[in-house]
Structures are given as structure tokens and as C-alpha cells.
Amino acid sequence: MPVATNDPNLLISTLIDHELGSWRHYRLRDLFLPMDVEAILKIPLRRTSQPNFAVWHYSADGRFSIRSAYHLAWSMRQVGASPSAPRSWTFLWAAKVPPKVRLFAWKACHNALPTSQNLQQRMGSLLGMSYVRRRV
């Protein structure tokens, strides 16, 4: 019977026998359901060892950027992910990214970023000012 684990230090490399270049079947059976073990065993292993690294699957190169987070937030907004729907935000607050990234994504989806338009709407009317956009 698989044992549920929430160990954040558990790495894929602990599931591989590096000397034999194969999966550690007993370890997989301890951690996963039989159907998941079957799927994992179908994943081919490389013969060369490489370190683990985090991948941001919302960008083509796998690297996180503020731009890719903004595009993700914008696309969520376009498909109708309502900012008021608490279920839609669970994944964001649980994401393993720096807190500033979670906050940026949340602000982007709530139109709370300090863009020139937002500043004009919020501050301009209070201060009796208007902002002029320069063309670049």
C-alpha cells in the first residue's frame, strides 16, 4: 500500500538506481499507486546523470519570468477565471514560487498593478492631475 508523503525534499533521483540505470521498483511501490508505478516505469531513463532543476511550464524555455507570469494571469482572466472565485486561486497560493511571484500574479489578475492607466485612475483624480503617455 503506498504511503502518502508531502516531503518537499523528495527528489526523483532517490527513485533511481544510478548504478544500474533503472527505476527502484520497491521505492516506487512504496510511494505510488500501482497504475502510477506502471506509468512511471514506462518513462525511459538517461544513462548520464544530471542534477534536478525546476521547470516553469508556462514558458517555452522552462524559465520563470515576470512576463510569463503576467501572460499566464492574463490568459486566466481571458478564459473566465473570476478573481472572486476562491477555488481558482488555490493553485496560486499553493504554488512553489517566491511570494512576490504569487502576489504579482494575483495583482495582475485583479488589475492592481501600478500601470500608468491604473495610476491615472486612482491618483490622478485625487491629485487633480492627468498623465500623458509618451510614445516610445
UniProtKB/TrEMBL annotation:
For this entry, the protein name equals Reverse transcriptase zinc-binding domain-containing protein
Reverse transcriptase zinc-binding domain residues are 64-122
Give the superkingdom in one word.
Answer: Eukaryota
Q: Which organism is it from?
A: Sesamum angolense
